[in-house]
Design a protein that fits this description.
little secondary structure, about 0% helix, elongated
Length: about 45
């Protein structure tokens, strides 16, 4: 990733939200789907 400098990856986390497997969502042309998620960090 161009915006992550040398060694900076050690201090980042990448989290992706998805509907997969039994929760997969199939959409017909023109249909829409919205999904929300809330993450928290405890130190």
């Amino acid at each position: 990733m161009a915006d992550v400098g040398e060694g900076e990856w050690r201090q980042m986390v990448c989290v992706e939200t998805a509907n997969v497997r039994d929760a997969a969502v199939s959409l017909a042309p023109g249909e829409v789907h919205a999904m929300t998620v809330t993450y928290g960090v405890v130190r």
